[in-house]
Structures are given as C-alpha cells and as structure tokens.
# Entry
Amino acid sequence: MAVFKSIYCQLPWLSAANTSLCLWGTYVLCLWASMSIYRLFFYRLCEISGPVLAIVSKFWHVAHCLDSKDHLLSEKLHQKYGDFVRTGPNELTIFTPKVMPVMLEGINNQFSKPSRYDSLNPYYGLTTHRNKSVHDQPRPIPSRTKLYASMRSK
# Structure
C-alpha cells in the first residue's frame, strides 16, 4: 500500500486524473462484458432467442421504440424469432394466446405480482397485495339490511 501511495502521489494532477479515468473505464467495460456474457450464455432465459443487443441490455428496445412504433417492431420480432421472443435481459414477449388460460387461472395461478407493488406499503388493497393467502380468503357476504341501508338516499 505504501508503494502505491508513493507512486500515485508523485504523479502530476493531470496524469493522476488520466490514470483514474482509465481505471474507471476499464472497470465499467469489464463489468459490462461480464454481465453480457452471463446474460447470453448462463442466464435462465438463454434458451429463448431474440436480438443479441436486446438480450444484453434494455437500451436496444428503448432506442427502437422512440418513434412509438413498438407494435411494428414486435411484429417483425415475432416473424423472425417465433412465439416467444426475448426483448430484454429479463423480459419475454409472448405472441400466442395459448398462455392466457395459464396466466388467468385464478386461485391456481403460479405467478405473483412484481416487487414494485411493495412500494405501495402500507397502502394495501386487494388488487395490490402480493400475498396469495390474502386473495384466497373468502369475502364476507353482506346482510340484506346493510345492502338496503347503503342504497337508501339520504
């Protein structure tokens, strides 16, 4: 550590800034390269095809959708890659209606809401709650007197 400090302190200010910038650039480049290799070859969605730059980063899809023609891009991707297209590192676009019953099967649904619903904490409603046990509880049936009382005008 002492050797590093003595060498680093002897450099002129501009040379030190240049060295720091080169080290930072090398770090960012290596980080991006390692993330790209992981997303292309080792990630759980690597078997699903899609544009290579879309698999590596979401910026590709954002750049192609700036002209508000995502539907045309989606159609081209569907024709080129099939019913399941990877349009981001962690994003799939599905073009077949066969998956709708699986997604909408109600209580037996295996999918859960994304973690962004946690940002609503503590304001939970039935539609924004992520816990499946809350959804599984039966709703109480109101009595007729409560129904009639709520319908009366004041």
Strands lie at 84-88, 91-94. The chain has a mean pLDDT of 79. DSSP finds eight helices and two strands in the chain. The first strand starts at residue 84 and ends at 88.
